[in-house]
Specification:
Layout lengths: L3 E10 L8 E8 L7 E6 L3 E6 H7 L4 E3 L2 E6 L3 E8 L2 E8 H14 L5
Antiparallel strand pairs: 1-2, 1-8, 2-3, 3-4, 5-6, 6-7, 7-8
Length: 113
């Protein structure tokens, strides 16, 4: 199985900006390496790795695991919050972008038989 890579645009939410600019984000899933995890690369080479299941759950209702929290924001957006010793990054996505990525990951996963 080959890895799934998808590039998306997201908004880094800050106290300073009313309408934060869109930034490029790379989403990656590698079923050969670990079929349970997804990778998200934010600008500045900040990579976060978390459970694919957490992403799916967080699109429907607030969900958290470790340093990552995900929740729906209205009908068409989702928020992912990353906590680290350097602070907190809050990233807002169009939900359809994350759903499209998840669908691609499930089609890349070998069917258990």
């Amino acid at each position: 199985m080959s890895a799934v890579e998808q590039y998306a645009r997201a908004h880094i939410v800050t106290d300073e900006a009313q309408d934060p600019p869109a930034v490029p984000v790379a989403l990656r899933y590698d079923p050969e390496n670990d079929p349970r995890l997804v990778h998200m690369m934010l600008p500045g080479h900040h990579e976060w790795v978390f459970a694919r299941e957490l992403l799916e759950q967080g699109l429907r209702a607030p969900a958290a695991a470790g340093d990552v929290r995900i929740w729906p924001c209205g009908r068409v957006q989702a928020v992912i919050e990353f906590h680290s010793t350097a602070g907190v990054a809050v990233v807002q996505f169009d939900t359809k972008t994350l759903i499209r990525f998840l669908r691609r990951t499930y089609s890349a996963t070998p069917v258990a038989g």
